[in-house]
Amino acid sequence: GAGVSQSPSNKVTEKGKDVELRCDPISGHTALYWYRQSLGQGLEFLIYFQGNSAPDKSGLPSDRFSAERTGGSVSTLTIQRTQQEDSAVYLCAIPMDTNYGYTFGSGTRLTVV
Amino acid sequence: QKEVEQDPGPLSVPEGAIVSLNCTYSNSAFQYFMWYRQYSRKGPELLMYTYSSGNKEDGRFTAQVDKSSKYISLFIRDSQPSDSATYLCAMSDLNQAGTALIFGKGTTLSVSS
Q1: If you count Cβ atoms within 10 Å of the first and of the last residue's Cβ in chain B, which end, N or C, has fewer?
Q2: C-beta neighbour count of B5 within 10 angstroms
Q3: Chain centroid to CA A9: how far?
Q4: More confident residue, A28 or B6
Q5: Looking at residue B99, what is its pLDDT?
């Protein structure tokens, strides 16, 4: 959606390869969230950033998953040694200004073959 | 038991029908309740936001929260084909930065003309 840009929109990778997903929010938002949406599983929280630090990374499913944020802006989610169960849509979100909801990006659809 | 339960459907209705979408939850601390609409291959967008119990109306949409029953609903009046989407409920317990929203799995709605 407006305010959050994610790239690539689609990514097909071979099992065992590393992938990097990018989230670029509009400026001025210190908070940033990553969620994963798997078929039949709904949205699962992965990690929360406040500025460049991640006070809550409790949702990362394994140590193959990592994320960073630089300059309080762009964030990257890296998945190492991808597995087929990593196939999902990865969504990035920022808090809305007017209430407590989120503005989501359109997501990156990851397919591991 | 998942924190938030939502019937995934699919739900198919004719144009003009009244649609009722529901979620139940187990955490009595939840105070902030939201409904998101997600079109195919798009990120979720906030549709309705409610704090604590009560009703909120916005055009053809009405959100209801019954905290005593831990049950929330979204009603769509005079449904239109453009309402065909996946509807996700979301909720949280704290109005603080970093509080991750907990989502239901989503209900897929199809409105036929």
Answers
A1: N
A2: 15
A3: 12
A4: B6
A5: 78
Identify the sign of the CA torsion B68, B9, A110, B36: negative
Q: Which residues on chain B are in Cβ contact (under 8 Å) with A109?
A: 41
Both ends of chain A: CA-CA distance in Å?
28
From the CA of A32, how many Å to the nearest CA of chain B?
8
What 3-state DSSP class applies to B81? helix
Q: Which residue, chain included where needed, has tokens 């144009």? A: B15
- Residue of A56, A102, A108, A110 best to disrupt the B interface, most CBs of B under 10 A: A102
CA distance A73 to chain B (A): 16
For B31-90, the pLDDT digits (tens) are 999 999 999 989 999 999 998 888 999 999 999 999 999 999 999 999 999 999 999 999
Cα distance between residue A92 and residue A107, in whole Å: 7
3-state secondary structure of B82: helix
Please check whether residue B46 is in contact with residue A98, taking contact to mean a CB–CB distance below 8 angstroms. Answer: no
Of A42, A48, A91, the CB nearest to B106: A42
What letter represents residue A112's amino acid?
A: V
Full strand arrangement of the beta sheet holding B71-76: B4-6, B19-25, B71-76, B61-66, B54-58
Give me the total of CB pairs closer than 8 Å, taking one residue from chain A and one from chain B.
Answer: 67
